[in-house]
Amino acid sequence: MSNAAERLAPNSSLRVFISAPTAARLAALARILVETGHVPVADEAHADVALAAADGRLVLTASGGAGGSLEATADAALIDAAIRAVAAGLVVQMPHAKEPGFHAIEEGEAQKLLTAREIEVLSAIGAGLTNKEIARQLKISLHTVKFHVEAIFRKLDVTTRTGALAKAAQLRLMQTLEL
Amino acid sequence: MANHSDILAQVSTALSARAAAARNEVAAIRLSGGRRLTGTVWRPDLIVTSEQSLPKRDTFDVVLGDGATAEAKLAGRDPGTNVAVLRLSPASSTSAATGNAAAAVGTLALAFGADGMGGASVRLGLVNLVGPEWHSRAGGRIGSRIVLDMQLRPSEEGGPAFNAEGGRLGITTFGPRRQILVIPADTIETVLPSLLQDGRVARGWLGVALQPVAVPDALQPLAGQETGLMALSVAKDGPAAKAGLIQGDVVLAVGGNSARSVRGIVPSLGPDSVGKTATLRVLRGGTLVTLEVTIEARPTQ
Do A110 and B226 touch (CB under 8 A)? Predict the structure, then answer.
């Protein structure tokens, strides 16, 4: 078995350095670690994974450089899974979280940007509406809705409605700026 | 016995000497829960570090190169350039006078972290990439994009990066996907006076969340451009709201600068824009609208 696979195995035990702003939070994290079969260590340099509670998030860093973050409310099973994944060299990311790190402004290619109308259609898709229902809601023809949906799929390079929603949410996180 | 004519042994000896000297260039900034961040002793009385990882507090305990603990007070922070400055009182007596240098791609880079006990940890890598100036999501302008091909522990972030000649390139910080970026020394020197005087770097603020969008083909002749920035939300009582901008408006230009992309309007929102009036060219429901906005200072979070 490879090193990475060993670390992903549910019965493996990893050395984890934890830090938290309060003693209570630290104790709670330590309890989760022990419950899930890991070993809390006092020195970051000797840990497989560092787990830090900060700013409403749990930030994970592996000695190999992989990392990730979870919401502060993540339960024991999720924390355990994330620790194993990060130790195995995988990146853990919350689906709707802003990616950590200092970022440049992302500029989308002009040809791939949606129009305001397409964004409206997409949010109707997100609300679970069918094409017929979208046509009724936006007071446009079914043909026009289909035209917009095709354009959305082409620009986002996806083939399904859920794919389009996921890709659009990701782009929106990267490209939206508060100025 | 060591063979001193061996070039590898010579390089190793030189690196080890650098690591020993670097203890006076770094300070360990103690955070809660046993965590640390590294600070760069920029001047004997100033510690510079990575703003994104510095908790929102006013005073910090720091460990200097002689192993002594001192109190450092926050002097200022700028999320735009990711620079925070702490003031040391009394000033560090061991700090070395260090000159700044520009990064050159392909050259060796040494990055230092503080080990929390007065010593330095060291990383060796190449300057992987040197690019042109860039704009951060937080609205700051960074003199050049410097990427190092090395990894850092979270506690090593904020320390200095040096070239082989001992010139200080800047401070290290985590970029996207834990890439190691350097905030260039000249960018730090540029924001330092404002940070020390005002505690921050003033930036213009419109009070609007903008997403790039395509202008529909039929409206492109009217708009005169293919893309614009749609207002996803408008801050209540913010400058844009007062000017009459509403959600769904597509901004085409700010004060004569095209809003074809976000990068295009960042120059309109520099430190000297605060208090000035700018014309917003806006596409609203298929017609062109112009609004007069008075730019305010970006509020501190």
Answer: yes
